[in-house]
Design a protein that fits this description.
Oligomer: single chain
CATH class of the largest domain: Alpha Beta
CATH topology of the largest domain: 2-enoyl-CoA Hydratase, Chain A, domain 1
Shape: globular
Strand content: 15-25%
Helix content: 40-55%
Number of strands: 20
Length: 704
């Protein structure tokens, strides 16, 4: 890998040189006036993207239209501020943004800012007036909750009606939550809060909505030129691909949070999209992981500190929402989330630190009718990138395989579900544990031939039957490992219809380092851009399409619009020449026979049948975005959503129980440490009713 690191280092140096050259030319081209920060930033960023991005775009009218569409979507994500006349006025710049960035002007940004500032002031007076009067929740009317299906208001009267319905909807949601909370109160237990009448609930709900909007608009009115420039710059970057981003200059902690989206307090990774804070990952071993109700795909609507009043985070910046959710270990945060099927749920989480041991590889044994099967879970491809003596996921998986072999397992299930990736080198080394020496993945820049990363160790750590479990949240390095095992025909890939589809590599550049001639305008922030793409050894990319399993199982989350293909301007799938490799034949994988047997079992399995039925209901409910504003009808629909949302847990409880247990050697090593013993039992407890794992074990048995 040393030659690869050298190439990457030289590449980074060349990119930096391009940035410096861009700034030098920019500086000497400016004669009549000093350069402004926005023009320096945008021009330098575009120079860097044109020189170093994997697939640089032409700065032309098509580029201009992409920026226009995405910026309009970002600046008024729910179409509540701009009027159709405003959009028509802005649309005049749809084909000229490319010309503006070339000469360093910013008429589109300036006019958008001017119009939005005025509309924010107008709508502030509007929502306050609407919320000053009671709503009638007995009338038959409805509201569209999907911004993609709504339109900009034709005039101010239509806009007022749009706001009235939306504020009525938000008030109704809070009334429903108060009704649920009041119904759960034990009449025998004294409460500090007396029961409210319907009229009192309505008044209190409007008061809460008013406070949330006052807070939100206070932030909107404080947005300055740097905030607007950051949004505009990031929009331009995102038109290249969803992983190319501009990060505004903030303090180090906020900068790191913006890049990772990780919450120290609850242990979740979040992202911001179109004004919504969405859960993208739950960190294994974290407070959220142990609590169990917060899931990837959930949208966080409101945040409350224990029993305090919830604060709406809709429309908030990601870093600000993070600051509200983070907190000291042992304190409670209550998240009001909207599930993908529309159900609204309050989730209480006691903040804690991530239990590091639970983020590492762990193994167990499953006894199935006299057959002992090994189970190995890998939550992420971790590595010690700074060579400080830390742990490596490849080395840990090797050790777990050794322990499983000492237990005389007859097959191994490697679980990569919800594994978002990590160290590429560890993925390469890990593949080598299951195959003879040979290529594992191809990495290619925008120009030139692909570099083939090989496993050079001819030793095979484990040669028995192998199943790799994946789902739509298995990404990046997980997809590389799964694809290699599939291409070698070394094992069977099982899971949802496809994995995530992230097959790109990003690098981060500090713009302050490469714009040295503009010290007076610093700080500029950083640019993360896509520089390379992953390709399987068969030549196909893992980008966009992901990895399609050999055996597809019904997936409770298949109705979610998750994955690379759902992102704006994602790079498309393509292919290059295949690497030279020989498929596994020690013994030959009986894939066709195993697949037929699995399909027959799944078709007659009551649990999988219920999952399929649930998915169809969830998909239908997700598409029904028009919501009744009649309180009784709304609560009836919410109750249906809650019932269906809980059906999956009921399915799991009804499933057969797997005889899974931690390794005897691991339990013995824990000794009398009750905390660690409890962690070990938690690891296997959630797997005992895992219907996908049960089928994976059956597939292993078919191979034995």
């Amino acid at each position: 890998m040393s030659s690869l690191r050298l190439k990457v280092g030289l590449y980074a140096f060349l990119v930096s040189a391009v940035f410096v050259l861009a700034s030098y030319k920019l500086y000497h081209r400016t004669t009549s006036r000093a350069p402004q920060k926005d023009e320096v930033l945008i021009k330098a960023m575009l120079q860097g993207l044109s020189a170093a991005h994997y697939q640089p775009e032409k700065i032309d009218d098509a580029f201009s239209k992409r920026v226009f569409d995405l910026y309009l979507k970002r600046v008024d994500y729910n179409k509540m501020f701009l009027l159709q006349s405003d959009v028509a006025q802005l649309r005049k710049f749809q084909a000229s943004i490319d010309d503006q960035v070339r000469v360093g002007s910013h008429e589109f940004l300036d006019l958008t800012t001017q119009i939005m500032d005025q509309r924010v002031k107008d709508t502030q007076a509007l929502y306050r007036d609407i919320l000053s009067k009671p709503f009638d929740f007995t009338t038959e009317e409805s509201v569209e909750t999907d911004s993609d299906k709504s339109t900009f208001a034709a005039d101010k009267a239509a806009q007022r009606e749009q706001w009235r319905k939306f504020l009525k909807y938000e008030t109704m949601v809070r009334i429903s939550e108060m009704m649920d909370a009041q119904a759960k109160k034990d009449p025998k237990v004294a409460s500090a809060e007396p029961n409210r009448t319907p009229a009192e609930m309505e008044a209190e709900a409007r008061k809460r909505v008013l406070k949330n909007y006052d807070d939100k608009f206070s932030d909107l009115l404080q947005n300055d030129a740097n905030d607007r420039l950051a949004l505009y710059a990031n929009t331009i970057a995102n038109t290249y691909d969803p992983h190319t981003e501009y990060f505004a200059p903030r303090d180090k902690e906020s900068f790191d949070i913006a890049m990772t989206g990780r919450f120290e307090g609850i242990g979740a990774s979040l992202g911001e999209k179109e004004g919504q804070i969405k859960v993208s990952e739950i960190i294994p071993g974290s407070a959220s992981y142990r609590q169990g109700e917060l899931k990837a795909g959930d949208i966080i609507l409101r945040v409350a500190q224990a029993t305090e009043e919830p604060v709406s985070v809709e429309g908030w910046r990601l870093d600000k929402a993070i600051a509200l959710i983070r907190g000291k270990k042992g304190t409670e945060v209550r998240l009001t989330v909207k599930k993908p099927d529309g159900a609204i749920k309050v989730i209480p989480i006691i903040r804690d630190v991530v239990v590091i041991e639970e983020t590492f590889a762990q193994s167990a044994t499953i006894n199935e009718n006299g057959k002992k099967i090994g189970y190995l879970r890998l939550p992420t491809f971790y590595a010690d990138f700074n060579d400080n003596g830390g742990r490596s996921s490849a080395a840990d998986v090797r050790k777990e395989l050794e322990k499983l072999q000492k237990e005389h397992v007859e097959g191994v299930v490697l679980d990569l579900r919800y594994n978002g990736g990590g160290s590429l080198q560890d993925a390469v080394e890990m593949a080598g544990l299951f195959i003879d020496s040979g290529p594992v993945v191809q990495v290619k820049g925008g120009q030139g031939a692909a570099t083939v990363l090989n496993d050079r160790d001819p030793r095979v750590q484990y040669s028995g039957p192998l199943v790799i479990m994946v789902n739509k949240y298995s990404a990046s390095a997980s997809e590389i490992l799964a694809a290699a095992i599939q291409d070698y025909k070394r094992g069977i890939i099982m899971g949802s219809a496809s994995t995530y589809g992230k097959g790109t590599v990003q690098r981060i550049f500090d713009l302050d380092d490469v714009l040295g001639d503009f010290s007076s305008l610093k700080p500029f922030g950083s640019l993360k851009l896509t520089t390379q793409k992953f390709y399987r050894i068969n030549g196909g990319s893992t980008q966009f399409k992901g990895v399609v399993p050999d055996i597809v199982l019904p997936d409770a989350y298949s109705y979610l619009d998750q994955g690379e293909k759902e992102a704006d301007y994602a790079l498309k799938w393509d292919e290059i020449g295949a690497a030279r490799y020989r498929t596994w034949n020690s013994p030959t994988l009986p894939l066709d026979k195993v697949k037929v047997k699995s399909q027959a079992r799944v078709a007659t399995n009551p649990s999988f049948k219920m999952v399929n039925e649930m998915v169809q209901r969830m998909r239908k409910r997700k598409d029904e975005t028009v919501v009744s504003l009649k309180l009784a009808a709304f609560r009836t629909e919410q109750e249906k959503a809650k019932v269906e949302s809980n059906r999956y847990e009921e399915i799991k409880k009804a499933a057969p129980t797997l005889a899974i247990a931690p390794l005897a050697a691991d339990v013995q090593a824990l000794g009398g440490d009750t905390v660690k013993v409890n962690r070990a039992s938690r690891f296997t407890k959630n797997l005992k009713k895992d219907i996908d794992l049960t089928e994976a074990v059956a597939v292993i048995k078919d191979q034995i």
